Fold:
Amino acid sequence: MCGIAGYYGSGNTCEVLLNSLKRLEYRGYDSAGIAVSSDFEIHIKKAVGELDDIKSDLDLKDKKSKAGIGHTRWATHGEVSEENAHPHVSCCGRFALVHNGILENWEEMKRELGEHRFTSETDSEVVVHFIEQRSQDGCVETAIREFMKEAKGSYSIAVLDSKREEVFVMKNGSPMAIGIGSDGLFFASDIHAFSEHTENVVFLDDNEYATVRGSELVVKNHKGKIVDKQPKTIKWSKKSPNKKNFEHYMYKEINEIPSVLRKLEKTLDRSQKNDLNKFRDMLKEHEKIIFTASGTSYHASLLGVYFLQKAGIEAQALIASEFKNYERADDKTLLVPVSQSGETKDVIEAVNHSRKKGADIASITNVPHSTIERMSDVNLRINAGQEICVAATKTFINQLYTIMRLSSSIDGANYNADLANALKNTIQKNEDKIKELAEELSDEEDLYIIGKGEAYPIAREIALKLKEIAYIHAEGMMAGELKHGTLALIEDNTPVVSLIPDGNSSIASNVKEVESRGANTIKLSPHNKDFWFPERNESFVFASTILGFLLTYWIAKRNGLPIDKPRNLAKSVTVQ
Ligand code: G6P
Structure:
């Protein structure tokens, strides 16, 4: 994970970097650091904690500098500490470096480097010493090419050279976008990091590196051959995301659901119509449909399988981190990666792997121009806007909607054309009851969510939210499976939330099974007058998900938890 940023230009380097890091914080918030080069020396500051708390410790605004790099960390190698925070500096102090990814052969490289002063436990520090050692004939690019040849693993790296006051970046496996602005060049893990400065972007591909000549960007491949990269113009909102009057992004983003859904509906009917049709045709034409995704997006994929099977299309969903162990992709396969960020490493690996075996790729993503979007034959954007809270909420709803529209374009199944309004009412009309329920459940340590059919993936999604945001051990399961083991855990007052759409009477006996063992059952159902549900049953998956999100939010708020940045997690997981 981790977010990296770099800048070369006439603006205030420290300020540009701090703004970029703020926008990259969703990639990790264990520690942060920046380095600028001024008077041919590296000036560096780093600290442990979230950016808002440590911003003043990273202040290098008084240094006159045209080049700098920054990093926000999600720890992989080495504990969370100032020593392990990036940037890392080479022994002679000429270079500083930030890294996103995992270097697999770092121990071997470290051994081969011999005498260097290592001050951290990270794999990344090895790279800065390597660059120093191999640049001894004065040529940094030679060192970079040698590193790219010898390194195993994934990286996107920015190197600051204080001698030449330059920034170099290189990429293999982790993202690197470069913004070309009137006041300089901006390097970052994603385009949002510099969206206030420019709309012109170059994306590095694997095994490429870039440097600045004069003020021009030069991109080369790992053999040193210049690659002609035409910048893409990207239309985006320049505004920095903010919470407006909401205390937390999670709550704001849940409340944005009706409006982002409306936007998505429009684009699927207009600007994305051709892609929707192409996607539909590909689903029909391929023998094998394999969804792949991680976390919340995997739950959306499970629902995709459910809908497609109903529509007469054979489909399966594989968790991306286990993809290689279970897949049988071939040239008759359509791989459907579902990913909010479009950058999740395990999903990218699954795409690469399937592509090599001849599969076609039709993806569903949110962040525009992401790696997965760029790797796909066709892509549908869920258009939910930037999501800041680590937990995916509005993007999950838009993933579900996109998947539902795809399947209904195949079998003509009904979908609620007024869904956005129905969900607005779901949020507003249930808020008080959900707060009451949150109060009742806030001290629970274990919770079970049960569902059948289309409600099963939702049960898993609500359980995931309760774990990651409310820190409650929750299990989302198929209601029919209770009697095969989990029932042994049900005691007096064990909370069991059951998801019961209209017409799904078969779950009733499972609810009875837990009730007769003393469980405290909470029925999320249109038949339970405690809750308001939209009339149309196709809305059930959306409405019950929202109730689960709100319940999680209010429990976490009641318990004073760090809702938007839960411990140990990051929004975009760019390591395997
Ligand atoms: C992380 C996030 C989850 C997300 C998952 C997959 O674990 O914390 O919220 O669902 O990654 O991310 P993606 O961007 O591929 O949907």
User: Anything to note?
Assistant: The domain at 428-576 is CATH 3.40.50.10490 (Rossmann fold). The chain has three domains: 3-233, 243-415, 428-576.
